[in-house]
Amino acid sequence: MDQDDRSSPSPPPPSEPAPRLPPPLPLRPTRPSENSLSTETAPEIDEDDMSQQMTQSYSEISFQSGFSPDTDIPSQILDEVTEEILTRPMTLPCDSNKPEAVSLTPLTLEGSVHKEGNMTHFVTEDLEQKLRLCSPVSKKDTPGTSSSSRACTPSPLYRQLLGPQIGQLDTALINDLECEAHRMATSIDSLIENLSEILHSISSITADNVDVYKNAVSKMSDAMDSNIKSMYTMMAKVEEVTQSMKIVETHAARIKEIKRLVDLFESFV
């Protein structure tokens, strides 16, 4: 029996490959109602964390879809998947990034507010009356002046301004400050006088240096003029000497001729 079992041939392997299933389609975007419910129940998420989660979800979808050239996926399925991915937004709007999300209601209660680009301008109303309310002297002198100011409710800014009261000033401290101010003024006056004297001395020294330089230049120019004149006179004298030396040359030639004749006579004698 064992030999019969061993001799029986094994079944042949299947010739056709196993069918390949197409990749799963990405999830559909949720409805706005579901997003609102999820945002109400879910805790607050930072913008960077939200964008990172969205990019991770897109990368997971792209990796799960398996867009590789080796897999045999029909082109129609690939086109549908790419169109589905392209229809999804790359970023989600966030109202906290908008400048209009900042509440300007407290400012509008105290004055007019208008915006120019990134700058917000605030113009208060009835500034003089508010300054009178903030002054402690006006409160003591005019206890029942304006009923409208009492009717209006003071803002937290008014309470902060009305809170700290100026105490009694120390006369000794004021006298010390006055003495120090006089001392500082006298020291500044002396410093300015010394500085002016130093500047005057420096200016006088500069003027003396300019005069010395001017005199030196004038004397040097006079000396150069005299040297040039003497050079020209010397050249004239040299020319006169050369003219007079021409006669000496003729006399020297005659003297040589006379000496030759004398030597000739001596040789005959």
Automatic annotation (TrEMBL):
GO CC list: BORC complex
Region spans: Disordered: 1-56
GO terms under biological process: lysosome localization
Annotated SUPFAM superfamilies: IpaD-like (SSF140693)
Start and end residues of each BLOC-1-related complex subunit 6 C-terminal helix domain: 168-266
Biased composition (Pro residues): 9-29
A Pfam match: BORCS6
Protein name: BLOC-1-related complex subunit 6 C-terminal helix domain-containing protein
Species for this entry: Acanthoscelides obtectus (Bean weevil)
